[in-house]
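During the first year of the project, the team set up a workflow for recording each protein of interest as an amino acid sequence followed immediately by a discrete structure-token representation. This format lets reviewers and collaborators read both layers of information side by side without switching files. As required by the reporting guidelines, we include two representative entries from the current panel. The first entry is reproduced here exactly as it appears in our internal archive.
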Amino acid sequence: MDRLLTLHPKKIDLSLERIKVLLKELKNPQDKIKNVINCVGTKGKGSTCAFLKSILEEHGKTVNMYVSPHLQRFNERIILKDKEISDQLLNEVLSKTMDLIEKSKITVTFFEATSAAMYLAFEKNPADYTILECGLGGRLDTTAVVNEPIAQIITPISYDHMEFLGETLDKITHEKCGILKQDTNIIISKQSSSVLKQIDKETENNPSPRFIFGEDFQINRENGRFIYQDDQSLFDLDLPNLQGDHQLINAGTAIAAAQKILKKLDPKKINQALKNTKHRARLEKITSGKLLEYINPNNQLYLDGAHNEAAAEAVNKFLETLKGKKIYMILGMLNTKDAKVFLKHFSSTITALKAIAIPHQDNSQDPKILANIANEYGIKANTTKGITEALHEIANEDSNAIIIITGSLYLMGEVLNLN
């Protein structure tokens, strides 16, 4: 891993030229992987991929999956059927990739090198289906090198990574849609009207059939049930295991994709799949572990890796359902993220905020800046030394409070390590 980080002066440098050269040297392992499903978008990619994997598996299929970033261990990124890649195989494919890079004197980024290693791992360990979560953008992402995916999913598109993808939603949508191929199935999750209009524009010369949320498939929450409907099915299901109304959209999109892939679904198997789906640090309630030692038995602790405006809205919507208790936020963010846009959604929801630096992260935002922004929105805020200190302070202030730690997936990794 350390060797890979020295390969390119920039952590992110979007291009397909370098990885294509590298993959050609590796004999194009990506072309030998069958039944690939791409997933691109701003929010909900990881959860949608997790739901889809679970649905396919409940229907008796094996599934490999590539996701990013990881929370605690790099191995989380490469899932071979039902297990994370082993240290031994990870070392083998990374070493092979690294040796070839050095021998051929190719300059690649860390993500390009690790993506090439992922394709090697999937070639060596084939599954019935392979789900590839797009890392950044779409058009120039390392997952765009697969030429014949059987399905491509677009999750909700909103503002994020504007320094790489453009300042407007039209530009961001253009980059996301740049991954779309001919002769595939395009499944489009819930979008704003302006994004949907831009997707129409981007796909006007693409003959691939499109399956659009709100037009071709719908979801509803009725009497504590999750209702999915499209032109061939009506499924009355239990609510998914993952919390929040936004997860109904993600689950519905995954069901729609599974319909296109498998043609016929069993509602009992879908139900079981939605119950089985896990996705760490997405409105995850912590019910065991060391962190509970710093709070009171009546405190409830949630984690969510939200770091952009759309995710902030989704988290806030969930917090609004937690009636009758005060809500405290522990916030750490990267300095590349817009804390003002993020925090404005919580001005009437949270009682107080503890701003912290993200441990072991050079790009962590100064907690004083976060606290000042929170104060500007009328949120009582102060800085705290770290995660455990913030938990301890909140528990002393209110032994019944709900606590949410949020602002960054990097912070989630640190919290889970502490736990």
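The second entry, processed by the same pipeline in the following quarter, appears below.
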Amino acid sequence: MRPVFLFPRATIIDCGASRTTMAVFSGGRTGLMRLERFATETHASEPGSEGRWLEKTSDALHALRAKIEPAGPVTVVLPPQVTLMKQFSTPRVKAAKRDKIINFESQQSIPYPLADVVWDRLIASESALAFNVLLCAAKREAIEPLCAALAAAGLTPTVLRPSVQALVSGFRETQARQDSAVPTLLINLGARSTTLVLLEKTGFQARSLALAGVGDGAPAGQLLANRLVQEITRTLVHFHQPSAGESSLRVMLTGGGARLPGLAARLATQLAMPVILFDALSAIEFGSEAAEFKRDEHQSTFAEVVGAAALQLRTKQAGLNLLPLQLRQQAGRRRLRPWLAVAAGLAVAALVPQIAHQRGVSASAYQQNTALEHELRPLRIEAARNLEKRQRLTEMQLQQEAGRKITAAQTGWG
């Protein structure tokens, strides 16, 4: 059995409209993901005031960072109010042509200059004739200040995940151990918006609307139920599904508004289909530091957190990432630094035996050279003496020859 520290870990930060949650997960020993530690900061939601939301989120990030030490890659879940979402279909063609069509359609669908947004897309579902593409985008004026707030709190995200993909992932992680064959309409009732996701075997379809499901901006009980029934009907028509009561569809509620008293019962009566609360916590186990986790309090608000952790720890799929390219590259370089240090250390370690061997060879050669030098020293001295004698002999011979020539010159007159 592997030690706990060898299991992969991930830090998830859910930046909701009225709460900010930080949670650290690990792979766990039992097959379930393990919640190691978590903390949540709540704040009032103020519709239409993105500046105030960013300020409160920034304060929450600093408070959470003081409570929790992150571990592993950091994923941030973006709330629906800062992202744009659209789906469109493309014909089934070869991959290269399909990518060109998707890129063209995506650029045509974004209502802002491309330089002002960060966008990404994925194939959400497919049929025999077409692909259904989910396009998500966020304005840089919302994303870049949030990234700056994360950096100021000492957090470096590798992924900015739209909440809809985290929600879908949370559902799939939970339903992997249950009956996933039943088509499900998952409704996330947040403080600023409501997201409806239709999940089937072939994929999913989603839409988001500016309907608060909880908080001061939400309609009262029966009014909220009536509005939701209208939106559910519109959604099923939009997704080309049979109307409520005419299919095997089931409805699941999650988000802060899911636990409003009587809401599930009202919807079940008006829709004539089962409406239940979605429990993402059934997909995780709890570590010792998360012992104070209050299941009833967080059951309806942890779906995106669990889903984002599953995307990181389970599938490791690229998915949607709205982190600006420059920050993505910086995060990649930061992740590489420890590995580069390890690689450099391994390279040095690999050279140590060779260096030691070369040092041994050098020491042996030095000893041999020293011994040889000791033996050659007297011979070199003797050779120097002999050279000196030969030089003297040569000089004497030259002097003798010069004297002979002088004598011959003096006596050679006729």
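For the second entry, the following points were noted during internal review. The mean pLDDT is 84. The longest strand covers residues 33-42. Both points are flagged for discussion at the upcoming steering committee meeting.
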